[in-house]
Design brief:
By secondary structure, this protein is mostly beta strands. It is about 5% helix and about 65% strand. It has one helix and 30 strands. It has a 30-stranded antiparallel β-sheet that branches. The longest helix has 20 residues. The N and C termini lie far apart (about 115 Å).
Length: about 425
């Protein structure tokens, strides 16, 4: 009877101290009060309530009233209904004065029944509602359909923002894949993703991949902006090497103001182009200061130099201004020649290129003793299929002096 009265007295004394302290109240199976009431040890599991609205369950705890630190271990559950999260762990330290929760050796956080966060370690700033989780971090959101794996993540809950630091892999809606070596920021309010350093973005549905030093993705607009050197691969057909590109996913249009290269694997054609706009749906390429290299993987090929032009890659046609075509060096079975033609405009379809106000010569660029002859014409037609060059109203000039006029003239090309 005396032992029961003593135990009841200790509980009443303990609750009085806790309530006067206005920090925690305890509902536990077994309690030890040491160091003149400054240290409280609870065992055999119990419930602890904080004056800030946090409910805590643990197998064992140790509370130091002097520095206001609560040590918890064994199946710890921290529930904060006001902020809609639950924390599960085995060893947790609650620094009440600093309003900080620390955890080591494994943690699980469930946020608003949406996000599930697991990691080895946790640093939680309760006042600012910021979770910092490190080592083997994984986030799964089954409502918004995304998964993130990282070395370190800051979850700014009030701002609905996730900052992933270090090596990061993320998958959104089982469709969009992100990889980053340094930082990836997800802003759920703006619905944007911003990643830096060796970033790879893959759209598994639309079959394209973009690699750059910095990528920003605007999900509402299906828009991507890159900064720095960028490589992109579309439909296993087009390979783009560029800088600072803009990609509009809904329209499937990619553009950049910088000098870029596009490799068309189907037509075996290489484009060097600046200030370009490329519709992947229509396969229409527009740009300026263009170099086109057909049959680029062969030792001899045709090169087109164009001031500005529009290319229909699907139908192998184009229209341009100010064109220069360097034909294959072996066009006339002499690879020392440099056959070429220039014109003020051109168009091409089905392998037949028409150059207006054109000039042709095969004079070698390296041989200064080559006679400076040329054929000038109202129109020159270059048939790549038949390997024939045809002239309308042609004038042969030698040393810039007219020698012969031909209403119609053609030769192999």
């Amino acid at each position: 009877m005396k032992n029961k009265l003593l135990f009841l007295f200790l509980i009443m004394l303990f609750f009085f101290e806790a309530k006067a302290n206005e920090e925690f109240t305890f509902d536990v199976t077994k309690i030890e009060i040491l160091e003149n009431g400054n240290k409280i040890i609870g065992t055999n599991r119990g419930l602890i309530k904080s004056n800030t609205g946090i409910d805590i369950e643990a197998d064992n705890f140790e509370y130091n009233q002097t520095n206001n630190i609560l040590k918890l271990n064994g199946n710890v559950i921290i529930n904060y209904p006001d902020k809609n999260y639950i924390i599960y762990g085995n060893e947790i330290l609650y620094l009440k004065n600093k309003n900080i929760i620390n955890n080591k050796n494994g943690i699980k956080i469930i946020d608003q029944n949406k996000k599930i966060i697991t990691s080895d370690n946790l640093f939680y700033d309760v006042g600012n509602n910021i979770f910092t989780v490190t080592d083997n971090v994984n986030i799964i959101d089954n409502i918004n359909y995304y998964k993130i794996s990282s070395d370190k993540i800051n979850y700014l809950k009030n701002n609905e923002k996730i900052e992933s630091l270090g090596s990061t892999k993320a998958l959104f809606e089982n469709n969009y894949s992100f990889k980053s070596d340094k930082k990836l920021i997800i802003d759920f309010l703006d619905n944007t993703i911003h990643a830096t350093t060796n970033v790879e973005f893959i759209d598994l549905d639309k079959n394209y991949r973009i690699i750059s030093q910095e990528i920003k993705y605007f999900k509402n607009d299906e828009k991507i902006i890159t900064k720095g050197k960028t490589n992109a691969y579309f439909d296993n057909i087009y390979e783009l090497n560029s800088k600072d590109i803009i990609y509009l996913g809904n329209q499937k249009i990619v553009s950049s103001k910088n000098t870029s290269s596009i490799n068309d694997k189907i037509n075996n054609t290489y484009y060097q182009i600046s200030n370009f706009n490329f519709s992947l749906t229509e396969e229409i390429l527009k740009g300026e200061n263009i170099l086109v290299n057909s049959d680029y993987n062969k030792p001899f090929n045709d090169n087109f130099f164009i001031k500005s032009g529009i290319f229909d890659l699907k139908h192998k046609s184009f229209s341009t201004q100010d064109i220069e075509i360097n034909l294959k060096k072996n066009t006339f079975n002499n690879d020392k020649n440099d056959p070429r033609l220039k014109g003020i405009s051109s168009s091409s379809k089905n392998g037949i290129t028409v150059v207006n106000k054109a000039v042709f010569t095969s004079c070698s660029l390296e041989n200064k003793d080559c006679p400076p002859w040329s054929l000038q014409a109202e129109k020159i037609e270059y048939d790549q299929n038949k390997k024939v060059i045809t002239y309308d109203n042609a004038l042969l000039k030698v040393y810039n002096k007219p020698i012969f006029y031909f209403p119609k003239f053609f030769h192999p090309g």
